[in-house]
Amino acid sequence: MSMKSRIALIFAAGLATLAMMSIFIVDEREKALVLRFGQIKQVKIEPGLGFKLPWLDQVVRFEDRILSLETPLIEVTPADDRRLEVDAFVLYRIADIVKFRQALGGGGEREAAMQLMDILDGQIRAVLGADGVTSNAILSPERSKLMENIRVAAQVRALDLGLDVVDVRLRQTNLPEQNFDATLQRMIAEREREATDERARGREAAQRVTAVADRTYEEKLSEARRDALVIEGEADALRTKILAKAFGADPEFFDFYRSLAAYESSIKASNSTFVIPPSHEFLNYLQSAAPRVSD
Question: How far apart are CA 147 and CA 143, in angstroms?
Fold first, then answer.
């Protein structure tokens, strides 16, 4: 091989090497920045081939996938002063790699996770410790709204870092061990107070029902007595009418009937002693009823 051919081959190899050093590939899972002396010269957010100056440019790659972060236990104090320990699971992504690089420099994802954890710590304390937020709300389905409030508040701060907070989920919600007994006693006292209130309301309702029943009973009894008096009065009137008719038809029989009624009411086992002369007119029909001895 001649010298000229060797030089050409070396030159071609050098060009190929230079070309290879000038090309970089960005896949669909990442984004990239091209830095020259620490300054951003190119932003590559679409997958594919990119070009840079060899030895002068540096390619810095960033995750384009959703990242996760778990916070440590955070102690919060809701509006009812019942302290809780909570931790959160956070999903986020690098939304703006230029702002991300400018805010964090070479710290990268590790520094971003640390700063995002500080942001979440503050926002979780602020949202769960706000006025009107009780421990019951945190432990109820209402916590979904609280988690969204935390995400929105954290998103405002995270945008300065070039991050997008996708989701925030509260995982554990526990009582601090030193407060467990006191909280348990407070819950027992609350339930006992509720039970006392329920019993009082039950007694009040029972008294109202009893009062209504007593009033209804008295009204029914009064109506029955009134009807009885009316019937009794009608019966007495009819009896008097019949007696008056009988007296008009046969006065002697009427006197006899009245005398028998008087004997029935007067001569009883408890009162059958009379101190009257035998010739008294009260005994007329008794005397006349005595058997006569024939001559």
Answer: 6
Here the tokens at position 196 are: 């006392």
Helix (H, G, I), strand (E, B) or coil at 202: helix
Contact 123, 154 (CB under 8 A): yes
Dump pLDDT digits (tens) for 274-288. Answer: 666 666 666 666 665
8 Å CB contact between 52 and 22: yes
* CATH class of domain segment(s) 67-174: alpha beta
How would you write 211-260 as a 3-class SS string?
A: HHHHHHHHHHHHHHHHHHHHHHHHHHHHHHHHHHHHHHHCHHHHHHHHHH
Q: Where are the domains of the chain?
A: 3-63, 67-174, 252-289
pLDDT at 199 over 80: yes
DSSP string, 12-80: HHHHHHHHHHHEEEE-TTEEEEEEETTEEEEEE-SSEEEE--TTTEEEEEEE-S-EEEE---EEE--TT
What predicted TM-score, i.e. pTM, was given to this entire model? 0.53
- The pLDDT value recorded for residue 293 is 40
Residue whose token pair is 């009245």? 258
Distance in angstroms (rounded) separating the CA atoms of residues 25 and 18: 15
Nearest alpha-carbon partner for 170 in 120, 119, 112, 110: 120
54 near 19, Cβ under 8 Å? no
